[in-house]
Amino acid sequence: MRADFIVRRQAACALALVVGMLATTRAEAQAVAITNATIHPVSGPRIERGTIVIRNGVIAAVGTNVAIPDDAERVDGTGKIVTPGLVAVGTQLGLVEVGAVRETRDASARGTDDVAASFRAWDGFNAASVLLAPARQDGGVTTVGIVPDGHVISGQAAAIDLAIGAGADPIRLAPAFMAATLGDPLRAGATARGEELAKLRAVLTDARAFRTTRLRIETGQTRPLSASFADLQAMQPVLAGTIPLVIGADRASDILNAIRLGRDFGIRVAIAGGSEAWTVAPQLAAARVPVLAGALNDIPGSFSSLAQSQENLARLRAAGVTVAILGNGPGDEEAFNVRNLRYEAGNAVAYGLSWDDALRAITLAPAEVLGVAGTVGSLQVGKQANLVLWSGDPFEYDTRAERVFVRGVSSTAKTRQQLLTERYLSGAPRY
């Protein structure tokens, strides 16, 4: 009886947390005007003592001489900073809830012969995840890429808004890119890097042939192929240039192989991880291959990252490479601590990246990789009102995200940490 009571109590507490996370919207004024703030549009120069007006979920005006609607809620931004909502390009938010509990992990498909190109990460996205609110409320993150993993080709990523409200559709773009890996032969069912690369090339070759021999493939009139019909079909947007192939690679030689792969097949490629990317920065710049990398860790995690450096991002930018910031610090930054994205950016500034480039690397640059830069990532009239009012410099540890707007709606959701704090301070039973 006692055990049953504890189980019921735990279930009730978990339900209360979810209900608290879902109760995230409040009645908004018809328009919102943040005034007298320092505004960083990212797509243009900084605006001192500026005003930004939100109406119907989009940015209606931004500048110094802006007419404020009579019905607008006025927010005084004196001494504060407004930036676009941050964009975390590579996360598993909503895909992994508790890493040690199998039924809460939806980031990896079984695949066929270590290829899972047809796997769509967003089909398993949990919009009620308790991990979304800390990323949004504490970290100012309003858009994320949710990315599958586990294979040489892991599947299709999506751009997701951390939308608020139980009925909101969080998907901004799907698919946003195809996720792949080089430098980890075991993921490809291989024993050497050359075998792993050969498998990736074989899939791309067969996917290219798929466009002209689809009927023969459907009727079984071709040789055995390197991937399933569904996977070859899913690779077509990559070959058409509609979405990029984002390749996880750390070692310089693997990065160069990825560049050659993009050139040989005429596809768009980006590098994720990129621990040694700075050592091949000229080649990346010449090929116009963006790099998604972190800035909190300079300790090699393997023999593939011996040249890892916290100056990686600064050196890449100095060479003309487009960079977007991923979390590479400790503590599950791809899920539990996505909110640390701004500290990654601040750390990159400490190691040579300019402040403006660091802000771009967590806003507009990742939005470009995700294919959503036309709607988010910068503060421009007509773009979606995903933005943050900060108490100060967003890269500083003691700065708070005072107001976070997603699609023009300001969230009052309490994070899991706040809910638990209130529960324990209230004297409620702790079992």
Question: How would you summarize what this structure contains?
Answer:
With 431 residues, this protein is of the alpha/beta class. Helices cover 29% and strands 22% of the residues.
Secondary-structure blueprint of this entry?
Blueprint: H1 2-22, E1 31-39, E2 47-55, E3 58-63, E4 72-76, E5 81-84, E6 86-91, H2 132-138, E7 141-146, E8 153-161, E9 171-181, H3 193-218, H4 229-234, H5 236-239, E10 245-249, H6 252-265, E11 269-273, H7 281-287, E12 291-293, H8 312-318, E13 323-325, H9 341-350, H10 355-360, H11 364-370, E14 387-390, E15 401-406, E16 409-410, H12 416-425
Parallel strand pairs: 1-4, 1-5, 6-7, 9-10, 10-11, 11-12, 12-13
Antiparallel strand pairs: 1-2, 2-3, 5-14, 7-8, 8-9, 14-15, 15-16
Helix pairs in contact: 3-6
| Biggest beta-sheet profile | 8 strands, mixed
Order of helices and strands: HEEEEEEHEEEHHHEHEHEHEHHHEEEH
Number of helices: 12
Evaluate the radius of gyration. Answer: 23 Å
| Oligomeric assembly | single chain
Apparent shape: globular
Output the CATH topology of the largest domain: TIM Barrel
The count of domains is 2
Which stretches are low in confidence, meaning pLDDT under 50 for 5 or more residues running? 1-29
Strand content: 15-25%
What value does the average pLDDT take?
89
